Amino acid sequence: MIKMDDASTIKLILSKPGDTDTILLMSNIIEEILDKRSKNRLPIVDERGKVLYLLHRSFFDKFVSKKAGQENIKVRELTLTNLLAEKEYENAFLSFATVEKTAKLLSAKEAMDGNPNCSDIFVTEDGSRNTRAVGWITNAIVSETAKL
Q1: How far apart are CA 75 and CA 86, in angstroms?
Q2: Domain CATH for 83
Q3: Which residue among 73, 99, 141, 147 has the highest number of C-beta atoms inside a 10 angstrom radius?
């Protein structure tokens, strides 16, 4: 699993609810986080480490493309708040599952298999979404491990 506290783990930490209003999609997230670090997924966590959302690059791209075609929309001014307000993507941002830190990889795979939209599992202190995530298991990790 990817350790959430590892310095190389890319995540966006929101320290207060209004933070999403000031985070620009294009410059702060797409260019500075995803492109610069060659990442396609971005967990968004609160200051305690609880996962709030998991955003995939495809949703950023789809949202920005859709907005770019609308009159009076300045794509470079779109914020994380704008994206999170899109009802079309709401379920996708929350489609991750959780397992407790003592769970085996099989439990993570079963949680992933139980939701066709789930590609990510977060390992939390108690297995719920309400506690700090200590690890992250992607569908790629499950697939790679299953080959062994």
Answers
A1: 15
A2: 3.10.580.10
A3: 99
